[in-house]
Amino acid sequence: MSASSLPLYTTSLQRIAHWALVFFCVAVLLFLIAPVLVVVPLAFNNEPYFRFPIEIYSLRWFKELFTNPVWLQAILNSLLTATLATLLATTLGTLAAVGLNHHNLPGKRFLMAVLISPMIVPVVVLAVGSYLFFSRLGIANNLLGIVLVHAVLGMPFVVITVTATLGGFDMNLMRAARGLGASQLEAFRRIMLPLVWPGVLSGALFAFATSFDEVVVVLFLGGPEQTTLPRQMWTGLREQLSPTILSAAFMLILFAIAMLLTLEMLRRRSVAMRGLVE
Amino acid sequence: MDSEANLSQRLRKAERRGQLRAYALIAPLFIFVALSFLIPLGTVLLNSFYDPVVPSGLPRTVRALADWNGPRDQIPPEPVYAALAQDLKEAVQAEKHGSIANRLNVEESGLRTVFMRAARRVSAQEDGPWAPFFEAADPGWAQPGIWGTIRNLASPTHSLFYLSALDAKRNQDGSVGPQPEDQRIHITIYLRTLGVALTVTLMCILLGFPLAYLLAHLRDKTANLLLILVLLPFWTSLLVRTTAWMVVLQKEGVINSLLQALHLISEPLPLVFNRFGVVVAMTHILLPFMVLPMYSVMRQIPVSYVRAARSLGAGPLTAFIRVYLPQCIPGLGAGALLVFILALGYYITPALLGGSTDQMISYFVETNMSRSLNWGLASALAAILLGAVLVLYAAYDRLVGANNLKLG
């Protein structure tokens, strides 16, 4: 809203208030984006310092990130864990969301509240609990335990996005498919899935990002071999602030930008598809 | 009539089949959630009051003490010592004596030595009398104290961990009293956790409300563009943002060097490893959770209401407070409650950006788990935190509906 769009009858006091608001909001937005603005240039600093001004720019720390076997292993571990957790969360979450879409399901609200609760339960509590329980089952200190808990943490996002997408899905399409001779499974695969996949995919992205960023569960359940990227960063931050952390941070910011763009694309796609349906 | 009844019956049947199919689709996820979420949380609750180390490690002693049931200021008679000797021999054989000694030591420091001295000698001794044997091993066995502790731990379920989490303890004479001064830390931690969470929530309201208001009143295109600035940090890794704040706030960090270059300060300000750093970073991380629900509610408030109020004679302030603000309450409440719930359980950010007096409950759950090895106390603290969060979550579900928990 530029000043010209303010109505003519605004008093000067209101004008001042308006510009004060704009100024304040610019400051808040700067606050929000500041960390990103600070990390990006420093990641290219040739010197191992975290201060401005930067005299020589270089890719030195990126080279370190992608050649040091410790960091490389951490990146691979993170990708593996997040991929497995995402597959598990997305498959189970999508199926459940289809079930939860049923128009008359007793206990639906309670089920939904339980399935979404992993988002708000403090992750330390879950980490302690899974450590206590999984060590009895013998799956603490390895990848399987981490994957299971990460899948639980990512699953609510899948359930939420897929149920939201299904909310705009016209169930008559399924009835039509069935009436034309398709089996239940075929109707799901050829009619429902193509129309809800943007929701499924954005849920999967959320789940992937959740696992990719998670460190507390890894600290409790991970053996010495499960050094994921966040765990490596955590260790670095606690012991010695190495500049490689900033290059890793830069890569994660790129990852966040890619996520944001993909999600926006999926959202538009989903809206367009639903426009087609309605 | 007959066919009509038949039809409604068939409809009901079809309906039930549909419901069953829906439940069948949900079942795999529910089983998975039960196994890797609900049971682990249940294990935390169980561990907070179930503690069988002493009754399963010293079963005869516990029984003999119950049979004797003498006053707490006396030492037990010979049969109890004999039972203990028997238990101790078995415990040493099974190498369980160390964990029993540790368990006693958690209740009363110093008891580990007393217990281990007897355990080390008991295998060499064939027969009694046992009371003098134990007294010779360590004079502590001739005091009523250690017997009181064993009696406090005699039942496999007890409330000692919760007492400890509330800065109280059961004394050796059986009475409940306060912990020694240097261990009376938990109430302070709860208050601190609440204080930090409240401060962060207030900061989020203070910064988030004007921003959401402005975004809601901008043209869609501009608003969407500016929303990217809210969403990008939201999607950026938590550790990246914590790292960034460390870089910005530290002694030689961006802010301090800037202020020093401008000659506004001569000494660097202490901005990090204290409460300030924790609140700034947590506000930054949680602000999107405030802005997004508030923005979506504010965008749906019709402008005409405020205009109507103005044309009916209300001043701009009155119209804002009495007409606009009440309509924002759902978004404001949802955002504030969510921020508060999430802030209560924070661990990473205070651990990295706070000093030793800025740590919240989660941190003490972690240290009791991995450093003090007092898993029972860790579980009791975790259970208290979980309880608080679940009560607030139930309120959230009531007010907003859990499935409206939209993030981005």
Looking at this protein, list some descriptive labels.
heterodimer, A: 278 residues, mainly alpha, MetI-like fold, 2 domains, B: 408 residues, two-stranded antiparallel sheet, 2 strands, extended
Q: How is the secondary structure organized here?
A:
The complex is a heterodimer of chains A (278) and B (408).
Chain A: H1 12-42, H2 60-67, H3 69-100, H4 108-116, H5 123-137, H6 143-167, H7 171-179, H8 184-212, H9 216-221, H10 229-239, H11 243-277
Chain B: H1 2-49, H2 53-57, H3 59-68, H4 78-93, H5 97-107, H6 111-122, H7 130-137, H8 144-152, H9 160-165, E1 168-170, E2 176-178, H10 186-216, H11 220-235, H12 238-249, H13 254-261, H14 275-298, H15 303-311, H16 316-344, H17 348-353, H18 361-370, H19 375-399
Antiparallel strand pairs in B: 1-2
Helix pairs in contact in B: 1-19, 3-4, 4-6, 5-6, 10-14, 10-16, 11-14, 12-14, 14-16, 15-16, 16-19, 18-19
Structure report:
The complex is a heterodimer of chains A (278) and B (408). Chain A is an all-alpha fold and 278 residues long. Chain A has two domains: 3-42; 63-277, MetI-like fold. Chain A is 76% helix and 0% strand. The longest helix of chain A has 35 residues, at 243-277. The two termini of chain A are 33 Å apart. The mean pLDDT of chain A is 87. The model of chain B has no long low-confidence stretch (mean pLDDT 91). Chain B is an all-alpha fold. Chain B has a two-stranded antiparallel ribbon with strand order 1-2. Chain B has 19 helices and two strands. The two termini of chain B are 54 Å apart. Chain B folds into two domains: 53-156, no CATH class; 186-404, MetI-like fold (Orthogonal Bundle), CATH 1.10.3720.10. Chain B is 72% helix and 1% strand. Chains A and B meet through helix 1, helix 3, helix 4, helix 5 and helix 6 of A and helix 1, helix 10, helix 11, helix 12 and helix 13 of B.
Return the structural class of chain B.
Answer: mainly alpha
Write down how many β-strands of chain B occur, each being a DSSP E stretch of 2 or more residues: 2
Largest interface: A-B, 93 and 98 residues
Question: And the CATH topology of the largest domain in chain B?
Answer: MetI-like fold
The CATH H-level homologous superfamily of the largest domain in chain B: MetI-like
Structural class of chain A: mainly alpha
Averaged pLDDT of chain A:
87
> How large is the share of residues in beta strands of chain B?
under 5%
Output mean pLDDT of chain B.
Answer: 91
Helix content of chain B: over 70%
Distance between the termini of chain A: 33 Å
DSSP helical segment count of chain A: 11
Residue share in helix of chain A: over 70%
Number of domains of chain A: 2
Order of helices and strands of chain A: HHHHHHHHHHH
Uncertain segments of chain B of ≥5 residues (pLDDT<50)? none
